[in-house]
């Protein structure tokens, strides 16, 4: 059996066309639901819908990883140089016959390609956001009325988001061509989480402006708590990605102890070797079980810190009535994370719990970014009042 080349751009145009076709559905829905409204309202609706679909993409990406479908098609961007597993049926059948439980099967190929189709759809929607925001900005400039752009999205934000999603696509390609290299897969997960944050900022800000509201004023302490919580959650997402990509979830199958000990045998020197192939160390030897234990247990210890910090944030958010909705959602997803995290350990890593655990982490990042976007500190508000022009 001939080895498939890693990069085969032959189906690239077909995949781009397919992504455009899939994106037409959400785009037409936005236009239909907001017919008769202004361009800012349509752009706001597109931002919210793109955020929702990106969250779905992150969930499906977790499903792809957790079902070992990341190499369901051994090349990129298509599948055996085609745009569909249907067209690659013979090659997939040959690979599956050689290794019935191997990385390439018909089911895994479909999962991998559906993930790529969804990613291309999100990419097209972000291109549409970029084009719409630039059109609004240029129209306001030509009219000599910058106030027309109020409430509209700054064109530089979706432009940066478009660059980000291109980098995310490159990481997706390297995930395949580098054979699930743990550092690349973890960066791909972080890139998806970062994309959610980038989309949640304009979606939240534009929704606030469309409602005719200003950011709520909160204390400096609560703003600091939000920033600290965001940093801790991002660190924990990184650690969780490192656990998942190294298949270290089952290194500890008991709770609260690990392997019957509060401090099991661990090899942190191997655990922090970042740039290495899956299952191997830099010298080519196999990674030890003690290293996998260290990877798992570090994530678990950090989880205690994050849960305590988020519980403190939840309590502090009582002083901000404008964040009541975010506070309820924060409580729900913290509880979800605790339950799914425990399920992964004691129930032998069930697929549903593992996917929900990734989704819960992404939701926590989105909620905290949302809270930061729709608020400002009292000190910043006071500064704006001091610098505002006084009436004559």
Write the layout of secondary structure elements.
Blueprint: E1 7-8, H1 12-33, H2 39-66, E2 76-77, H3 89-98, H4 106-143, H5 156-177, H6 182-210, E3 216-218, H7 220-245, H8 268-271, H9 289-316, H10 324-346, H11 351-373, E4 375-377, H12 378-387
Parallel strand pairs: 1-2, 3-4
Helix pairs in contact: 1-2, 1-4, 2-4, 2-6, 2-11, 4-5, 5-6, 6-7, 6-11, 7-9, 7-11, 9-10, 10-11
Task: Summarize the model shown.
The chain has about 400 residues and is mainly alpha-helical. It folds into two domains: about 10-215, no CATH class; about 215-375, no CATH class. The chain has helices spanning about 10-35, 40-65, 90-100, 105-145, 155-175, 180-210, 220-245, 270, 290-315, 325-345, 350-375, 380-385, and strands at about 5-10, 75, 215-220, 375.
Descriptive terms for the model:
392 residues, mainly alpha, 4 strands, disordered C terminus, COX15/CtaA_HemeA_synthase, oxidoreductase activity
- The arrangement of helices and strands along the chain is EHHEHHHHEHHHHHEH
Q: What is the first-to-last residue Cα distance?
A: 83 Å
Mean pLDDT: 92
**Which class of secondary structure composition applies to the elements?**
mainly alpha
What is the percent of helical residues? 55-70%
Overall 3D form = flat
Strand order of the largest sheet: 1-2
**Total beta strand runs:** 4
Q: Give start-end ranges of low-pLDDT stretches.
A: 384-392
Beta-strand content: under 5%
Largest sheet: 2 strands, parallel
Count the domains: 2
Organism: Comamonas testosteroni (Pseudomonas testosteroni)
Pathway: Porphyrin-containing compound metabolism
GO cellular component, one term: membrane
Pfam families: COX15-CtaA
